[in-house]
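yo

u said u wanted the structure for the complex thing, so here. seqs first:
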Amino acid sequence: MQELPVTLERHRSTWDFTRLQLQMSLRNLGIFLRRLARHPSAVIGAVVILVYVVAAVFAPWVAPHPPDKVRLGQRLQPPTWTGEFPLGTDQLGRDILSRIIYGARVSLLVGLLTIVISVVVGTGLGTLAGYFRGPFDEVMSRFADLLLAFPYLIFAIGAMAMIGPGFWNLIWALSFKGWVEFYRLARAEVMSEKTREYVEAARALGRSHAAIIVSEILPNIVHSILVLGTLRMGNMIVMESSLSFLGLGIPPRIPAWGSMVNDGHSHMLVAWWLSTMPGLALVVLVLSINLVGEALRDLLDPRLKVD
Amino acid sequence: MRGVRILERVLAALPIMVGIAIVVFAFMRFMPGDPVDIMIGEAGGVSEAEIEMLRAQFHLDKPLPVQLALYLGRLARGDLGYSIFRSRPVIDVIAETIPATVELAVFSMLFALVVALPIGVVSAVRQYSLLDRASMAGAFLGISMPAFWLGIICIIVFSLHLGWFPTSGRIAYGLEPRTITGLFVLDAVITGNLAALWDALRHLVLPSVTLGAGVAAVVARVVRSSMLEVLRTDYVLLARAKGVAEASVVIRHALRNALIPTVTVVGLQVGTLLGGNMIVETIFGWPGLGRLVVDAIFARDYPLVQGSVMVYALTFVLVNLATDVLYTYLNPKISL
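structre next:
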């Protein structure tokens, strides 16, 4: 049985092999999804995330009002749940529910972009460093250590203070340090995978380094990266909203949860809902992402369970 | 061997500290305009000759490596530059705010440990009990909850609605104890000023809970998981077989060993505490380093921002160094 994959590769055409792989991965996906379904909290989390994504993507149709429509006659209306402004209005009479729905765009987009950039850069550099070692690894690892010496939020606040608020500035500031954890994970995983027999076998078959990295090693470490990426996405979203709360993240004219909570800070004596509602939206989203992340970790990579 | 390991750690921290200085310097150079442009931006109406003179005074006319060397030299002498906004040396401005920040950090960490240690231990001993499930759900919530929101909710509920705690500040005006250490609680105890002590503690509750909640959540989870691991070991089994009382097994045999991984995590959590510090001090009007930085950012006082970021990062490195050293004392395997 153990020799089967090699003989398969030798005797079947590439097309057959790809089809077989596809069938196998579909079956694995089915098994995986059935196991995931046994974690009810993860299913709830995934559904909630889906609701947020749909609301964010279709915001113009989902939101009951335009997010920046000012109604000075209807300032600071309390939540009525079933009325015209279900979650109330802010200090300029803007509908809070609509602003929350548009704010989800910022949070989800920043979370997704920073994680994708961090994963791609970190995994890429980490794989190269772990596979080839040498001076490249030395330099990159020292640089990673250096970035780790800064507490994340301090680094982000310092960077945003220098380069100023703005969407891409924010992505840049968060990703500049975000890749480090993925670098270290990928590097460590590649270093341990490289000593395994299947890599030696691939090399004996005369495969190139690039082919070994891409088609042999990466598929074996991708699950750890996926787990860490999911768990860190919540952090990125919290970091974005913390910066926006301080007025250092997203420019004020774009609705973002952090700056909405900050608006409410100065009106909390008279209107508790201004800060409470967008913050609640944030907590529910981050909670859901973390639920999914922890379930993925338990299923795919229990070794990461160190906190 | 222990001494060698500690020395090794100290020596490894030194290049990191220099590296931090270089990163902060690089940021300063990457931003548009130089310090002189920013200073003039506020005033206006300055002649070319005067600008050149200022540039020379700040060594901005010299090549970058020379500027870097001069910068590092000044740092080594404790010179963090000159605050544009406050017209005073950065180091003096920062030093004034340190006691307030240290006081808040200490109380936040105390709160976190006092809550997290018992919860972690009991959750592990009674694994899967209702208490375990409830506390781990609470810890999960704590991990996902941003400090800026928790702080505002605390103010709305406990200050504005229930009126139990003040909304902001360190102490009521006029109640400040005589300054000895700068930590109000400690000064009030030393001088026997009970009114000040009570008021300072009341002001500390909400900020400490807000800042410590996230740390407590992480620490409780780590204590629980390392306790679970230790409780399964042979030496705990042996202690139970010998008939050692359960409380003694849990505390003397298990907890002492479970604390070893906890120490590292607590050290790393100081980073969370330092970052959250800016947020919490802003919400609660706490006159510490965090609020100073946020004010400095909006005043475009770059030397003050850079100096503070340096102080934060160096504190983090030193705390982790101290954690490492403590670790070698807690873990008998390392001293062999």
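The mean pLDDT of chain B is 84. Chain B touches chain A through 49 residues (CB under 8 Å).
cya
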